[in-house]
Design goal:
Blueprint lengths: L2 H32 L14 H8 L3 H12 L2 E5 L2 E4 L2 H8 L6 E2 L1 H4 L17 H16 L6 H19 L13 E2 H18 L5 H4 L6 H18 L10 H5 L8 H19 L7 H7 L4 H31 L2 H16 L12 H4 L3 H13 L9 E2 L5 E5 L2 E5 L4 E4 L1 H6 L2 H4 L18 H14 L13 H18 E5 L7 E5 L2 E5 L2 E6 L2
Parallel strand pairs: 2-8
Antiparallel strand pairs: 1-2, 3-5, 4-12, 5-8, 6-7, 9-12, 10-11
Helix pairs in contact: 2-3, 2-10, 6-13, 7-8, 7-21, 8-14, 10-12, 12-14, 14-17, 14-21
GO biological process, one term: methylation
InterPro entries: Cyt_P450, Cyt_P450_E_grp-I, Cyt_P450_sf, Cytochrome_P450_monoxygenase
GO molecular function: heme binding; iron ion binding; methyltransferase activity; monooxygenase activity; oxidoreductase activity, acting on paired donors, with incorporation or reduction of molecular oxygen
């Protein structure tokens, strides 16, 4: 080849590379300049490195919390990303008619398959709202009359499992068999959600094991998603050839792919039976127009998310109760009083949801547990409207430029919110939910406490669809466990192993000693 031609090609290649680098640098400088008025860790204005470290640490919630504690309720965590601990700002961003939209940068990391969405990952607001509308009745229990009885069935199975395999008899000197509460609670929640969603429980409680390896596969899938989110490589899954090659496949012999294949098989078999045989979530979805691959995506999503988040809530609450003897004794006394007053039926029958929710201390313990250690700590990133948004946070005015991503710091909004919950906000104290409502200021503060605490389940058009099922499980499970057994942490210095994957908790090795109550 002629040397002149080679030189021309090399010059053009050099110019193309230079132009690409210059474009990237100018773009990053533009991002830095647009958000220069927002404070944050030193590197966040020009690099995602700080954010990558936070996500890959498995403790992103603490990193986000520390940022808002140090730099204020609206701080910078990346070149084009802010985070807030302000409940008022987050309610404004998440309101029904808010111009903010979900950020693909975050939500698409949680997709099961490239290019396919469920109600959680859908970022088009109109499509999300339409899909959510089709599913609302099924989640609310309006078309699932057996919802509460299904929960009762599996709570009974949990109590039976604990009693028959792990608890030592009351007043016995015989040692109990150490029990991993983390796994047993996960068995409960996945059995409940598979039952109410598909009409058939997976059977983990009866087997006392992870049937088909679903829980292990779910954990692996979350870890992979978390790594791609932290490294910023999730976009690779959307590329034509690379995406399918690095994504789980339903042809896989094990892992997340096999779990998807099994779930699709169950959905297919259930679809062939129609909706007349049983009225449950699945039947409700179909009746309201969820079909085809959308149906699979929604069912698979509810099995994963519905199991993980509720299991995390129960385990968190039980850990904090076991770690606070005063709270433990007071809650158990209320439960015993309800049994004595025949508010709850004799065991092994399960307390009714309406009665459990009337127990004030139980309700306070559940709220306080989820407040001091939120069971979901997702960023839930949103994108500011094109024209930007002028907001006021804690009396200070800010302008959020159009296209800026804004996320939510659950740790600082709930656990560290001293202005609302008091100087001991990071302490587990259920009594903070009891105030003198005859004092207008206290009544108003309590109302605000409830409103902020409810943000754990989302807000506006983004409220968690599974909230109804989760609260039924929470009240019944905690009541029945403490009615029937006494629990003690086997190692208070290391009560569990905890890792944050994409804002969901991976909880392992929560070993307890169990004694049956007389």
């Amino acid at each position: 080849m002629d040397s002149n031609i080679i030189n021309v090609v090399l010059r053009r290649l050099f110019l193309a590379v230079f132009a690409a680098i210059a474009y990237a640098v100018l773009g990053r400088l533009r991002q830095f300049w647009r958000l220069r008025h927002f404070k944050g860790p030193r590197t966040t204005g020009v690099s995602w490195w700080w954010h990558s470290r936070a996500v890959l640490s498995g403790e992103a919630q603490r990193w986000y919390g520390d940022v808002t504690e140090k730099y204020g309720p609206l701080a910078r965590i990346g070149p084009n990303h802010l985070i807030t601990s302000s409940p008022e700002l987050w309610m404004h961003i998440s309101a029904v008619r808010s111009p903010y939209k979900r950020a693909e940068w975050y939500y698409h990391c949680a997709r099961f398959e490239p290019g396919k969405d469920n109600v959680f990952t859908e970022c088009d607001t109109e499509k999300h709202d339409a899909r959510r509308k089709k599913m609302a009745s099924g989640y609310a229990g309006k078309e699932n009359p057996g919802l509460e009885s299904s929960v009762d069935t599996h709570v009974k199975e949990l109590v039976h499992l604990v009693r028959s395999k792990y608890a030592s008899p009351a007043a016995s000197t015989k040692a109990s068999k150490p029990m991993d509460m983390a796994s047993k609670i996960q068995y409960l929640t996945i059995d409940v959600i598979s039952d109410v969603a598909l009409g058939q429980a997976f059977g983990d409680l009866k087997a006392d094991g992870d049937m088909n390896g679903y829980l292990k596969a779910s954990e692996e899938g979350l870890k992979i998603g978390n790594i791609s989110f932290g490294l910023g490589t999730s976009f690779l899954r959307d590329l034509p050839i690379i995406g399918p090659a690095i994504s789980p496949s339903e042809k896989d012999a094990s892992g997340f792919g096999r779990m998807m294949a099994e779930a699709r098989r169950v959905v297919r078999e259930r679809s062939m039976k129609g909706t007349e045989e049983k009225s449950d979530m699945f039947a409700s979805f179909v009746r309201h127009g969820v079909s085809g691959d959308d149906l699979f995506q929604e069912v698979f999503e509810q099995i994963l998310a519905g199991s993980d988040t509720t299991a995390a809530s129960i385990r968190i609450i039980m850990l904090y109760v076991m770690s606070h003897p005063r709270v433990y004794a007071k809650l158990q006394a209320e439960i015993d009083g309800a049994v004595k007053a025949e508010i709850a039926p004799d065991s092994p029958e399960i307390i009714a949801d309406t009665e459990a929710r009337r127990l004030p201390y139980l309700s306070a313990v559940i709220r306080e547990g989820m407040r001091v250690h939120p069971p979901v700590v997702n960023l839930f990133s949103r994108i500011a409207p094109r024209e930007g948004d002028a907001v006021t946070v804690d009396g200070k005015e800010y302008f959020i430029p159009g296209g800026t991503m804004v996320g939510y710091s659950a740790w600082s909004m709930h656990r560290n919110n001293k202005s609302l919950y008091g100087e001991d906000a990071d302490v587990f104290r259920p009594e903070r939910w009891f105030v003198d409502e005859s004092i207008p200021e206290e009544k108003e503060r309590l109302t605000r406490m409830y409103r902020v605490n409810d943000l754990i389940f989302g807000y506006g058009g983004w409220v968690c669809l599974g909230r109804v099922v989760a609260l039924i499980e929470l009240h019944k499970t905690i009541f029945e466990l403490l009615r029937n057994f006494d629990f003690a942490l086997k190692d208070p210095f290391k009560p569990w192993e905890l890792y944050n994957s994409l804002g969901l908790w991976e909880i392992k090795n929560m070993w307890v000693d169990v004694t049956e109550r007389s």
